[in-house]
Structure formats: structure tokens, C-alpha cells
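Minutes, project check-in
Item: structure for the 391-residue chain
Input as provided by the requester:
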Amino acid sequence: MLRHLLRLDTSVCEMALTFSVAKGSVSITWHGVALNSRWAVDTFRWPRSTHDKGEHLKSTLRWTATASLTLALVLTGSAAAQAKPTTAERNGNTTTVARTSDGRAITNEATAREVAAFWTPERMAGAVDLDIARRANATESSDRVARPNGPAGTVAPVKPRVANDDVSIQLNESAVVGKVYFTTPGGGTASCSASAVASGKRRLVMTAGHCVHQGRGGQWYSNWQFVPRYRNGARPFGTFVAYQLTARTAWVNNSSLDEDMGIAIMHNGGNWGLKVVETVGGHGMRWNWGYNVSLMTALGYPSNLGGGESQYYCQSGTWHAGGQQIRMWCNMTYGSSGGPWLQEYNDQNGLGYINSVVSHGDNPGNGQFDGPYFDNDIKSLYDFAEGLSPA
């Protein structure tokens, strides 16, 4: 017997179902898109018994009864007309040296340690989960040709150099995924989701563009810190402080949702003073793999589920959302921004292939969100960040 928890997308309905499952699975489709081909046996996992260590990663995929009953993804404002990103911006990347909130460059590990010390448990608890990219400040490049712009490419995942058994990695929860904390230009503190990504220099953390820079007319964030596999205040691998922040120029200048991608280059840190990918491993990456993926796993720290204190996941098929964006079923909201969308997520080692990141909600109430389609632009940003990374 497998016990599954199935929640309707309302604030008042919840029911537990019990299934007898032998072999096989249940297929669920919506307008021809598979929601989760492994739903019957894999998606809604019940926590292990109290005799086991830790808990399962919690699923946030919801069964939508009707459009009128879906839980709204909270968005602020209405769409506003903005200038379209230029061709040069679409092909460009922008960077800044990471800084403290008082403007000092974080160019050495002594300053990085100051930033880590700045993030006390009280400050981390008080950080506001950043809202999903607001359409009022963003543009969608509907004139852009909607197709892969090159051959399909892959970066393979990397396992950590450090043995992680002693910190009890939990089934389904990825040590590669964590929370990022930063200071906003107005002096507030905020957080997003992010994940380490494999590269030769082992220093890259990928997130959404709006989690490193405010977008059109805005500024870069400061005191930028990554906490892999954060949970309820715990930092099992320590913390890593950004050395440099990068984003697509079209995001920085025009808040283009097609280009809502960011990569941070990290100082050595954590509990062992190593590089971030050496410590926790890194997801692989795929680009130009097409809009329709039969099973995508999105991970993040949504404030509407668990208060942003633990990882949740959604699993769904993806489809083209217009422009260079893809869409999937999920009702994670604030705080999940920047979390990875993963192909072939392995719940035994917590690794997969990043194929997008959480960017913004589609329409309030429909339980879907969008991410930038990974084409040659993400590979350009990835190569740009890797080239800026110290050895």
C-alpha cells in the first residue's frame, strides 16, 4: 500500500487517498501535455518513519479541479509596455564585482567571511522571499523567433569531492539546491532559490536574473550568499559568498523575461573551505533541447509552502509559453524564484540537468509558472561566468 496526499488547489480542500499499487503507473495529461508520467508511484511521497533520518522532499504539484478553484500565483501590477531588447542586448552579458551593502568589493576571502558573519540566523529569518518576477517591470519578446537557436548541448553533472554521508542527505532533497540571501538597494534583506552548476572551475551558482539584479532601472544586489540544502535555519554545508554576479544584458536593461537568468561566481567557503561544486556537487545543464519535455522537476523554497524553510518540488511536463519561455504546472510562489527546472532528476544523488529556472507566474489562479527557454543565450552566460571565474 502506498499512501498519497492529494490536495485540491483551494485554501479549504484537502483529502488523503490510499492506493494499491503494484507495477505500472498512472498517466495524467492536460491538453495533450503529460503532467507526470510517474505520478502513481513517485510524485506524492509520504515521509519516512521517524526511525529514519530526516524527511522526504515535499511535492507541491497540485491537482487542479477547475480554473476557478486554483491557488493563485501572486503577482503585482499589470503588464506595461516596454521597449523591446535590442539584438546586441540579446547577445550580451553583464557583470559586476559582488559588493557588501556599504559598497566594498568582495574580492578576498576575508571580506567574504564578513558577509557570511553578517547573515546571522536572525537576519536570515527576517529576509523577505523575493516575489516572482513582476510583469509590470518586465518585457516579453514576442517578436523573437520561437525556436532552438543552435544544436542541443549538454554539460554533465558533477558529484561532490567531499563525502556527504555524514550530513545525512535526504531522499529527494538536493544538496546542490539551496537558498540565496542578499541585501536590496533600499537596505532590506531578501531571498531566492538557486543551485550549483557543474563547470571546470567549480564555482558557479545559477539562479534567476531578478535574483541578482532588479532589472530595468534597478541595481545589483549586495551581500549575496548561497546556503546549499538550507532547511529550517540549518546550514549543513556552511555558506558560500559571491565573488562576482552576472546576468543577461536584456534583463539588466529591459527586464526581459526571455532572459531572466543569472549566475554567481562564488568564493571558496562552506565547512571545508572548498569551492561550492567540490563541496556539494553541481547539476548538469542542457540547452536547445526543445520546449516540450515529458517530465521536468522544479525545486525551490516557496514561502507559500513551508514558509520558505525547506525544499519543495513540482513535477510536470513542459510546453511553449510564447517568446523564448517554457511553462509547467506548479503553484510554488515567492521564494522559489531562481530554483532549477531539471531534466532527469536523480533522487538518489540529488543531481539532474538544469533546463530552465523559476522566473514568473503565468496568470493568477492557474497554478502554472514560466521559465526562460535555455538556448544559446544561457550557454553564452555560462561561458561568460566561467571565463570570469578564478582558477
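Outcome recorded: The domain at 87-388 is CATH 2.40.10.10 (Thrombin, subunit H).
No further action items on this chain.
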